[in-house]
Amino acid sequence: MAEIPHKTALSGKLLTMKFMQRQQEQETRDKLVKEQNRIVTEAHWVIDQTAVDLPKPKFQVDYEPSFLQMTATERSSVGRMSFQKFNSAVEKSASQAAGEQQLERELKRQRQSEISDDEMAKEMGRSNKAKKTKEAAKSSQSKKPTTNRRAPPKPSGGGGKFMKPKE
Amino acid sequence: MASITTEEESKLLIVLPGDQLPESGLMEDSSAAHRLTLGPGLAPMDDDSITAVKAGILKHNAVGNRWWVESNQRRYVAAQGESIIGVVTGKSAEHYKVDIGASQPALLGVLAFEGATKRNKPNHNIGDLLYCRVSMANKDMEAELECMNPTTGKADGFGELKGGFVIKISLGLARRLLDPKNLVLRLLGQHIPFEMAVGTNGKVWVNSANAQHTILICNAIRNSEYLNSAECSAMVKSLVEKM
Question: Where is there biased composition of kind Basic and acidic residues (chain A) (predicted)?
């Protein structure tokens, strides 16, 4: 077999054809996009939060800025009041509101003392021995040190990938 | 920073800003898995402790493991769900600007009234008194008000207050007056027919048949702030006798 001295190169005319141009364009586009990604990734600074292992907060804290909500379980609060039938509409609505609030408190108190059917079944089902072994297992679990510091949410973890900050 | 030791239930626990709460005390009602509801006057600090930020009496409610500091002040800070008395200071196309005694005026939507539509809007002038409910409040924005009950859509006592007289009292006294079983109001109601509205922002509106009654009621309310029940009844009695 005779040696082919020249390299097999595509002819110039072939290169000008549409389907070859499309391929070229695709390649250049990919290259540009990669370049853009690289620039953008380097411009965005992200703190590596896996290194800083913040412990879970001790208490879960809910905030309630209103004093009235604190004492709602003990006393009613009625804004408008009327005495000796000065304004009978207000008197009626005031006594209604007070009655409703008291009813809610009573219901809440009742519901607290009640135990749901599922929980009752659970309690009955567990034997004493099973209860004791469960408690022993729980206490022996090692606990992480806890703080109240509100930990910022951990990212999904991209490693070296570009993580776009949420706009 | 001072640390507080929990004392017996019957004693009043007075806290000053900077006093830390003991964790063992806070976990007493920990049946609900370490959940804590902090009311006004308490805040968690950087070193993971709960610290008082206001001076007052530390209070606790077992329901929901609530802790708060019962303090008194005169400047109102808007909180959602509270009923307040406001004065209209400005009108725009969509909102009324209402002065509620907070650091910023609050906004009351023009349509936030019972049965209000674009065609049928209530018309309030500058200087009108309104009894409203705070529908949204946070420390970064102006509070928003509404003049109706959000669940039913009815007025329920909210709206314009016509006539009468407004006095300014401390916030602690205003909260005590909201109790329908309040002693001063009940005693006054036995002698004088009147109506009133209490705003959690420290304003009380009183309306009665003549000026003498109104002045008597306002004086009685102001005087009752630091009196116990016996002194209160004596005070009301002496005022009524002079009438």
Answer: 102-126
CB contact under 8 A, A64 and B66: yes
ipTM exceeding 0.90, yes/no: no
- Residue A103 CA to residue B26 CA, distance in Å, equals 29
Answer whether B195 sits within 8 Å of A112, measured CB to CB. no
Q: Please tell me if residue B164 touches chain A, with a CB cutoff of 8 Å.
A: no
DSSP label of B3? B
Nearest by CB to A82, from B39, B61, B195: name it: B195
E runs forming strands in chain B: 14-15, 35-38, 42-44, 50-52, 56-61, 66-70, 83-91, 95-99, 106-109, 129-136, 144-146, 159-161, 165-168, 194-199, 203-208
Residue A164, CB half-sphere, CA atoms under 13 Å: how many? Answer: 4
Residue B130 pairs in a beta bridge with B86, B160
Please say if the pLDDT value at position B1 is more than 50.
Answer: no
Which CATH entry fits the domain spanning B82-160: 3.40.50.150, 2.170.150.40, 2.60.120.620, 2.40.50.140?
Answer: 2.40.50.140
Mean pLDDT for the stretch of residues B130-134 = 95
Q: Report residue B8's pLDDT band, with 50, 70 and 90 as the boundaries.
A: very low
| Bridge partners (DSSP) listed for residue B3 | B20
